[in-house]
Amino acid sequence: WHNAALLYGDAERPAETGARAAPGAAEQRPACACSQKPCGCQKADVNYAFLHSTDLLPACNGEITTMSFLQDVVDILLQYVVRSFDRSTKVIDFHYPNELLQEYNWELADQPQTLEEILLNCRTTLKYAIKTGHPRYFNQLSTGLDMVGLAADWLTSAANTNMFTYEIAPVFVLLEYVTLRKMREMVGWPGGCGDGIFSPGGAISNMYAMLIARFKMFPEVKEKGMAAIPRLVAFTSEHSHFSVKKGAAALGIGTDSVILIRCDERGKMIPSDLERRILEAKQKGFVPFLVSATAGTTVYGAFDPLIAIADICKKYKIWMHVDGAWGGGLLMSRKHKWKLNGVERANSVTWNPHKMMGVPLQCSALLVREEGLMQSCNQMHASYLFQQDKHYDLSYDTGDKALQCGRHVDVFKLWLMWRAKGTTGFEAQIDKCLELAEYLYNKIKNRDGYEMVFDGKPQHTNVCFWYIPPSLRSMEDNEERMSRLMKVAPVIKARMMEYGTTMVSYQPLGDKVNFFRMVISNPAATHQDIDFLIDEIERLGQDL
Amino acid sequence: WHNAALLYGDAERPAETGARAAPGAAEQRPACACSQKPCGCQKADVNYAFLHSTDLLPACNGEITTMSFLQDVVDILLQYVVRSFDRSTKVIDFHYPNELLQEYNWELADQPQTLEEILLNCRTTLKYAIKTGHPRYFNQLSTGLDMVGLAADWLTSAANTNMFTYEIAPVFVLLEYVTLRKMREMVGWPGGCGDGIFSPGGAISNMYAMLIARFKMFPEVKEKGMAAIPRLVAFTSEHSHFSVKKGAAALGIGTDSVILIRCDERGKMIPSDLERRILEAKQKGFVPFLVSATAGTTVYGAFDPLIAIADICKKYKIWMHVDGAWGGGLLMSRKHKWKLNGVERANSVTWNPHKMMGVPLQCSALLVREEGLMQSCNQMHASYLFQQDKHYDLSYDTGDKALQCGRHVDVFKLWLMWRAKGTTGFEAQIDKCLELAEYLYNKIKNRDGYEMVFDGKPQHTNVCFWYIPPSLRSMEDNEERMSRLMKVAPVIKARMMEYGTTMVSYQPLGDKVNFFRMVISNPAATHQDIDFLIDEIERLGQDL
């Protein structure tokens, strides 16, 4: 049966499936007598060494070859998927860039390769890939590999369309409508009212928020540019994501006009400092137009105090954006959603289902409370796309809301996963990840050789800590210790990658030298994987 | 054999594959005796009606269910793929938005659905999808469904990673490097030198060009914003893509600062008008910083005279961008690449392989001649991602070049298709599409009932024409005729969609009322499909 191929690379495949016919046999053989057209009866005879992409559909009689080829690709992928969840496999087979460039010929040529070579390219690419679904891959906020999400992404690829009009993406446009409304309900906007879009990532979603906030206050900026309006300033915490500054640079506002508000020791924005800086900016004649609060900071996983921030935004009539790219997922959990209390008062919210909800990359939503604003802000009325004399309800041609013209279908994988899990399924998955983070925190908070970067139970799944090798444990807390400690995490991380056993991120932050930032968003992870991580850090770091 | 499932929806599937076991059987059954672990021997027994996504990996013993489920999804997709190329199937099974909303329950709920329902969701989604790979789908610049591209996109989904660092996307980062260098070679930059990125679509690529051009002239804009620099103006033709204006609005430059240069009757920018408008702007004290020339306009498929434009840009020291989103593919053709002569003098080039080269959506490249500029313009040095003390060559951490933080892997499908076709394969495919466009042009230019929107052989695959129904053929060319002609294309298009037989776009442009814009980018299309389109237009339009 065909799944035998799952367990073997082509080279190792049992002989019975390897029977191969003469060159070009797929074309020359007389038509099969079976009643199915196209039929796949003769798959075993397809000899890829003599076939090229021109033998695939739309080639005449290309069905057999196409189905065999795609099936063999899928077999390679299923093998990879199964191995991704297998703890006995490496997370990564690490090679330095120059090694990887030399180990295989990746170059593009004038002449075609055979389908046999194409299958080899696929296997080689996966050989060196990071298994981001591996239960011991903790390196990024987006981890895991959801099977329904994967299926949905495969369907999206086969449908190969574009979000700009209902005309060419009827189902996906409706699903975007349904899904965004549901997400707005979860945010707490009455009846899910409002607007939104799926954008290519949280940075772009945050940039959209800034763009729309500016337009709301000064609609003339669209035509006249920044020259026609006062100098704007935006506020965000010192722990916020760099995309707020990146957006300000792009939008012509400038990074100097992003004022970083101080955080408490847990990484939460201090509202009194926000108000002070707003007043200061106003005194200088600047116009505060946006506060970007963070619900789940990148490193600490901190939630800014949204209610206090909402009060200040209301008082000074400033657009309140909540960057919930990382923390938004907690809205699915009855146990944890209080951490976002106040989000319902935001004017806009970024929420990336590709992070805490485990949706395949990428899937980021920007939600906007006021309907129609995105459209007014971004529309250019291209008459070749958004014809006004079409025969259906034009409100479903949502493409002109976007900065993009063509837009990838990102909604289907989220929608299908939501159908498959229900809200309660996402909740269970998220609660489990938070429980694991608490387990890790409890395990190391008093353990020899560990120091927590901040006190207290994590609010999200971020657990930030230093591993202190034995040689540093009795040292005084001075500069030498700091400079040695700074080098510990990078060395352990490099060793993790070379062994390929696990991956976790590290970084410095402010005056704190390199520390590990553990995050858990993969429902495949278990207590044993957390135990493994700690053992591995100690194994790899004890000699430092 | 499993491919039997290809030809049948679940309901119609022959009885022998439909044998189903008791609830939860997949878990309760004793382990199979075969030597393969995990094995798929018992696939036929999986009863999806009693299984949920929680039974899939990473569930304990989830392999059998996972492989069966993904295999069944793939069977549904393969069926869709084969049908996409079958001319006896509809391009679209059109339903109005309110019908589609009522015909199926698309809502998201608290409770999970079974895997049986998930498979049904997949089938239903595809039932209402547009077959963008159908040989008679001519509606957009991106059409077709490439089998190697599809395979590559499936692999990309399974790898589920992010382009920001080499650490988590080693192969894909290298392939981006190799592929962008090759594209720059095709543009004509010596040795493929320069820089670039894959971005989420041509509009964003064009916005990048504008962003980088502004930064090159006034690097202080990154920190200080537009307030600190003189009033900028950009130039592009009146036939250029709306994304130039959209970008200017977003970047705080303002749409009024995008000066539209007149075109000749073929839709090409008139260089003397460009120079005149540059001088005029300078006289007003504005600073010209960008000319965006178009290589393949959206509607006419016109190529701006790049050499003359390059001369003007050089003379006035203005950044020359070429928007080759649509026309860039012609660089792969020895016969047609002369149309882009002068592109090698551009400072930046947008080129969307997802259009003329048939790569699945989305795949858009921005190429920049000066290396390092993208990085300086966009980098924010986020220390949690771009640690400076990593153990490998940091020049491969390319993520800080981008406006995005997370970035989808768009390169693999292009790379794999290029390996499979070779440059010569892309050339053959593109030459064929252009030949088909010429065939269409020759067929209708003197045919009763057709008027060409502009004279002469198309330069790209765009063929723009009016169909004149018999009732209008003897009318004088007056306002009444115009107002009746305006309604012809929309009605024919609506009928096409309701019959589902073919799709082609129409639009007004300037003083020209609605005309058809035929484009061909699908290598599946043949002369017979062109003949069919013409017959269909006449069949659906003769009574108007």
UniProtKB/TrEMBL annotation, chains A, B:
The subcellular location is: Cytoplasm, Cytosol; Cytoplasmic vesicle; Golgi apparatus membrane; Presynaptic cell membrane
Its main subcellular localisation, reduced to a broad class, is: cytoplasm
* Similarity remark: Belongs to the group II decarboxylase family.
Cofactor requirement: pyridoxal 5'-phosphate
GO BP term (any one)? gamma-aminobutyric acid biosynthetic process
Known partners and oligomeric status: Homodimer.
PROSITE patterns according to UniProt: DDC_GAD_HDC_YDC
One of the record's GO molecular function terms: pyridoxal phosphate binding
Organism of derivation: Dromaius novaehollandiae (Emu)
Instruction: Specify whether Phosphoprotein is a keyword of the entry.
Output: yes
Q: What is the lineage of its organism?
A: Eukaryota, Metazoa, Chordata, Craniata, Vertebrata
Record's GO cellular component, any one?
Answer: presynaptic membrane
**Its Enzyme Commission number?**
4.1.1.15
- Could you tell me which Pfam families the record lists for this protein? Pyridoxal_deC (PF00282)
The name this protein goes by in its record: Glutamate decarboxylase 2
CDD domains in the cross-refs: DOPA_deC_like
Q: Which residues carry this modification: N6-(pyridoxal phosphate)lysine?
A: 355
